[in-house]
Amino acid sequence: MNDEQVAMDLIIHAGNAKSLAMEAIGAAKKSEFDEAKEKLRLAGESLQTAHVLQTEILEYSLGSSGVSMLMVHAQDQLMDAMTILAMAGEFMDLYKLVYTNIPAARRDA
Hints:
- The protein is mainly α.
- The chain has one domain (about 5-60, about 65-109): Phosphotransferase system, lactose/cellobiose-type IIA subunit (Methane Monooxygenase Hydroxylase, Chain G, domain 1), CATH 1.20.58.80.
- It has three helices and no strands.
- The longest helix has about 35 residues, at about 70-100.
- It is elongated.
- The termini are far apart.
């Protein structure tokens, strides 16, 4: 697999992880915690695949003299996905706490 294809695969998996994490937040906001948990699990799987690709990239490019802009973008997407996934878990916990302690809040979601 060439560098461009690996970078594109990294972008795809990181993007999927970000989208699923955002969907998890949306589900938690509607107090659909089982769905939110599943979306977060799927996001974690996509992020793990992206992380494996990143490791391959790093191992392969140790002797390389340059890094393409596409590869920089791919790495940026991975970092964004990792941040959003962590935040999605926190939002899910927060919504659960709010809805457990303030049942009337569910009607406004």
